[in-house]
Amino acid sequence: MTVAREHVLADLRERISALEGGIARRAGSLPFGVAEIDATLPGGGLARGALHEFAGGGAGTVDGAAAALFAAGIAARTTGQVVWCLTRPDLFMPALAQSGLHPGRVVFVEGDKEEDVLASMEECLAYGGLGAVVGELVRLPMTASRRLQLAAERKGTIALAVRRWRRQIEANDFGQPTAATTRWRISVLPSVDLPVQGVGRPRWLLELMRSRAGECAEFEIGACDDKGRIDILPRSGDRSDSESRCLYSA
Amino acid sequence: MPAAKAQAIFRDLKLVDADPVGDQLALKRIALWALAIYSPVVAVDGNDGIVMNTEGADHLQGGEQKMLSRVASQFKAKGLNARVAIADTWGAAHACARSIRRETVIVGRGELFHAVARLPVALLRLAPKIVADLGTLGFRTIGELSATARAPLALRFGPQVGRRLDQMFGRISEPIEPIREADRIDVSRAFAEPIAAAETINKYVGRLIQQLIGELQRRGLGARKIDLIVEKTDGTLQAIRAATAKPARDEAWLTKLFKDRTEKIEPGFGIEKLTLIAVVTEPLQEQQKTSSLVEEAAADIAPLIDILGNRGQRVYRIAPVASDVPERSVRRIAPAGDDIRGTWDGHWRRPIRLLRQPDEIKALSLMPDYPPRSITWRGRQHNVRKADGPERVFGEWWTCESELEAVRDYYVVENEMGERYWIFRSGDGVDPETGDRKWFMHGIFG
Questions:
Q1: Looking at B110-119, B177-186, B402-411, which range is the least confident one?
Q2: pLDDT tens-digit profile of B97-143?
Q3: Residue B352 contacts by C-beta under 8 Å, 6 or more apart in sequence?
Q4: C-alpha distance from A49 to closest chain B C-alpha (Å)
Q5: What is the pTM of this model?
Q6: B chain contacts of residue A187, beta-carbon cutoff 8 Å
Q7: A36 in any annotated domain
Q8: What is the mean pLDDT of residues B77-91?
């Protein structure tokens, strides 16, 4: 019975995705390389011809630091040029280089207005041939996100929208519906404890808040390494014996 | 002052004969240089200046203010002092450039009358005889002259005075007859009936681009800067300039650059003639695109860069600079061109957001080299749970004399929420010569 149901469901999925369009499906997806996360996402990773949204939690809604770094890690794992559209030029390139994005791969497009960022992103997505298109946005209305999503589907380029707001209270805008395929919230967590004084590998709480044709989930991950990869670290609650382990691993 | 008198005042005075012909030739050379860099419409103005119509071309230099300071500094680099002014009309810009004490001045829209009202009549580009006679009659400033009844002036001096005033205030047009290089590559199309509809303009611009590409192909060149000059029935010119990141001869690419901007053309009573000129060209050879079966060539994004750049977006890449001072370790470079080879040394973690100006914070710490226990930034207190540091950065005495002793001690601090910040103390905490021991917020980690 269950086998038959599985079969029917798989068949239906196949037919729906066939209806949904050509290039986006052929572009495939970009796996995180972490089994738990990839299993949650339909297609086994972030869909390439699609728009994905990232925001920070807490103070990260304003600075968007973790969200930008997470997006940079994803962009680093693609191949080809990356265009980064923004209005506030406060990104520090050495940090992007440390998460695996070589400076020669990134072209920045700085506009004066939000609308410029949307227009530039759409132009880049429609141009095709890029590894990823990243945009830092305050507002992402339904129409604009739909346009970005369609442009991404047409050429199969991955679009990453990093949301950052002027004030923390404005961040409830993140609840508004958009056409993005997935929506993530990345909040900072205390770093991994070291046996000595110092700040260890940063950890993030990764919340998958929306995923088209998929389920929501929550992960505690270690921040991007120098190749842009993330990985799951043991939950802070699970580490009752961490003290003793640290003593011996030092 | 006669030469003999000057020699009597100043001993060993060196006398050089005036060389008006040489001056004109030099001005023409400068005008040709400006044509290639700043604007499609450039002409020699009188015997001591050049005039440019920069409308539709200033965005390539990052706006009017940046363009003006760049012009001034480029002349200064050659040891010449230039006065640069921008105004709505040729007359007003001419007068302002010759009367200002500063290097650059921008006369905003609507401020034209205020800017020129107090200037002397001599700046009105009139014959010296007329200026002298006006002085005898007691006219000193342009404002006084413009407030006088026209008829008596015209009766005495002819139509020239009224015409110059009208030209200065933009009441009648004064087209600039642009200077042209001898071996420029241009194609043009004159219309028997003036055209005005957007589709028609687009159609003919497309045809001109095809012709221009044919011409470029014949000479083995690619265009870096292209001007579209629109001549209208009322005698005015409008120019649109597009620049490319590398030599281009591709029809779709160039058409897209102008299609984006033909909507800015104001046809007025109609367009008589369209001219397309390749102002700056570089050799461009045909290239084999792909030679391998498997490897996919990286997409060429130069056309995309041009589209975004010509829309007024700032497009750049960031390249490493060998400096330990964080804000000096990055530099903006052109979006296309040489590959960036090196990268930053990755031993120390760097924040993803760097504040443009370090923010002063309150911090509680043990001297000399312990990280702070707590910091207060923008009215919020953070208790420091974990910290890394100090990473000591020394001032660069070779760039700035006052940095000889300067020191910054950087720390990475983390609060109980897990928010990580990059802070520094100016000074090493012991020697007051190295800094005043104030704490600053400089960056935010992800």
A1: B177-186
A2: 888 888 888 888 888 888 888 888 888 888 888 889 988 988 888 88
A3: A65, A68, A69, A72, A91, A92, A95, A96, B443, B444, B445, B446
A4: 17
A5: 0.73
A6: 418
A7: yes
A8: 87
Please give the angle made by the CA atoms of B423, B425 and B428, to the nearest 5 degrees: 140
Cα–Cα–Cα angle for B119, B120, B122, nearest 5°? Answer: 130
C-alpha count within 13 angstroms, C-beta hemisphere, residue B71: 30
Asked whether residue A6 is assigned to any structural domain, the reply reads no
Is residue A83 situated within a structural domain? Answer: yes
Assess if residue A11 is contained within a domain.
no
Q: Which residues contact A117 (CB under 8 A, 6 or more apart)?
A: A85, A86, A87, A109, A111, A135, A136, A137
For residue B74, pLDDT beyond 80 = yes
- CB atoms A94 and B350 under 8 Å: yes
Which of B308, B416, B418 is opposite residue A109, by nearest beta carbon? B308
pLDDT tens-digit profile of B242-262? 888 888 888 888 888 888 778
The answer to whether residues A217 and A40 touch, using CB atoms and an 8 Å cutoff, is yes
Assigned token pair, B176? 């600039």
Number of domains in chain A: 1
Measured between beta carbons, the chain A residues lying within 8 angstroms of B303 are 127
Q: How far is CA A3 from CA A8, A13, A17, B70, B90, in A?
A: 9, 15, 21, 73, 83
Best interface-test mutation with B: which of A99, A199, A226 has the largest number of B CBs within 10 A?
Answer: A199
A residues 72..131 contacting B (CB < 8 A): 72, 80-81, 83, 90-98, 102-104, 106-112, 116, 119-120, 123-124, 127-130
Q: Which domain holds residue A90?
A: 28-245
Write phi, then psi, for B250 (nearest 5 degrees).
Answer: -95, 130
Q: Which of residues 209-248 of A touch B (CB under 8 A)?
A: 223, 226
CATH number at A153 reads 3.40.50.300
Pairing of strands B84-86, B104-106: parallel
